[in-house]
Automatic annotation (TrEMBL):
Protein name as catalogued: G-protein coupled receptors family 1 profile domain-containing protein
Keyword Acetylation: no
Organism field: Ataeniobius toweri
TM region positions: 49-73, 82-104, 124-144, 164-187, 213-237, 296-316, 336-355
Residue ranges occupied by any G-protein coupled receptors family 1 profile domain in the UniProt entry: 58-352
């Protein structure tokens, strides 16, 4: 009898302890505040709002800066040698009008409910490849143009005609169009899907086996080859600038060189357009066309560095996603590298246009004309009334 009572007591105690342990597993942790989810949600909304603000700001800067440079070049006939710069601004303006707004929709969580049809997603990917290829190939053309202008000035003046400029632009458009058409006819395969979430419309979000080949091809044509050309060209420019500076600068105290000439331009773009070699055309080498090797090195770092910072993470990301076959990117990494690349559309007009003193002067004149026109109109109207 006692044994039965002892067994029942042990059984009840064990059941009670198991129940308590089970209950303890499901009870909320008393050390965790109850409003943790609210704080996390608030922080996430602030981060999303800040990201949306940055994307919209970049879009507006790209719109205004590229339009300003194009207006300045179009108004001044003596700036016709900046035809490739104007072409770059036109391409970047198209990116700001067509590509960047679609990027905001696909990247921002505030548009998470937006759904693209398969055709709309294909159009977005087509514009992505087409406009990015246009912009990068135009930057490459600008680098080659500067190389011939600096290293081979006589050949540049003879060969660089309006027909050659138009031919190079047409070649850039044809090459970009052919590469982008692959995304419409030979590459994307979404299976039975009729619609795709805007956040999932990406270069690597496809079920086609060809995306690996396309990812490598896209990176080689639009990044690797242009990066090699740009780096090689500006290295050659640096060597010429250093050689010209060593041959032209007399042996004077170092404190004299700390006072730059007033006629020298303070812009990166005009500095690279003001070098000549004494070996080819010594009569063209003048203080206005030569600058020190240190400034040439700064030009090399700025131009090549800006290109690599904007585009290297983007292409590394897409090559990795294409080769690994992954369908989903980790966290917000894709949005970060995409908008780092898109920032090039807002930065390019500053590096290749607005930092040039001649273009800045034209913009100042245009602004003065716009500000003086209302005043002159009022004066004419008052004279007519009198």
């Amino acid at each position: 009898m006692m044994a039965d009572m002892t067994g029942s007591m042990i059984t009840s105690v064990s059941d009670h302890s198991v129940a308590n342990s089970t209950t303890a597993l499901w009870e909320p942790n008393p050390t965790v505040p109850a409003d943790v989810s609210v704080v996390t949600s608030s922080q996430s909304q602030i981060k999303d709002l800040f990201g949306l603000f940055c994307m919209v700001t970049l879009n507006l800067i790209a719109l205004l800066a590229n339009t300003g440079v194009m207006v300045a070049i179009a108004r001044a006939p003596h700036l016709k040698r900046f035809a490739f710069v104007c072409h770059l601004c036109a391409v970047d303006l198209l990116c700001a009008i067509l590509l960047m707004p679609l990027g905001i929709i696909s990247s921002s969580p505030f548009f998470g409910t937006v759904v693209f049809t398969v055709l709309e997603c294909q159009v977005y990917i087509f514009l992505n490849v087409f406009l990015i290829c246009l912009s990068i190939l135009t930057i490459t053309a600008i680098s080659l143009e500067r190389y011939f202008y600096i290293v081979h000035p006589l050949r540049y003046e003879v060969k660089m005609t309006i027909n050659l400029t138009i031919s190079v632009m047409v070649l850039i458009w044809v090459k970009s169009l052919l590469l982008a058409l692959v995304t419409l006819f030979g590459w994307p395969a979404y299976g039975p899907q009729s619609s795709i979430a805007a956040a999932h419309c990406s270069l690597h979000a496809t079920h086609s086996r060809l995306r690996r080949v396309f990812g490598v091809l896209f990176s080689v044509i639009c990044f690797l080859a242009p990066a090699v050309v740009i780096f090689s060209v500006y290295c050659a420019v640096y060597k010429v600038a250093r050689s010209a500076a060593l041959q032209q600068v007399p042996a004077v105290p170092t404190w004299v060189n700390t006072c730059p000439a007033k006629s020298r331009s303070d812009s990166i773009n005009s500095q690279t357009n003001m070098i000549a070699t004494t070996r080819t055309v010594p009569q063209r080498l003048s203080p206005e066309r030569a600058f020190s090797g240190g400034k040439a090195a700064i030009t090399l770092v700025f131009i090549v560095g800006q290109f690599l910072v904007c585009w290297l993470p983007y292409f590394i990301f897409h090559v990795q996603m294409s080769l690994t076959g992954s369908m989903q990117s980790p966290g917000d990494l894709e949005e970060a590298v995409t908008w780092l690349a898109y920032s090039s559309f807002a930065v390019n007009p500053f590096f290749y246009g607005l930092l040039n003193r001649q273009i800045r002067d034209e913009l100042v004149k245009f602004r003065r004309c716009c500000l003086n026109q209302p005043t002159e109109f009022v004066r004419e109207r008052n004279c007519q009334e009198m």
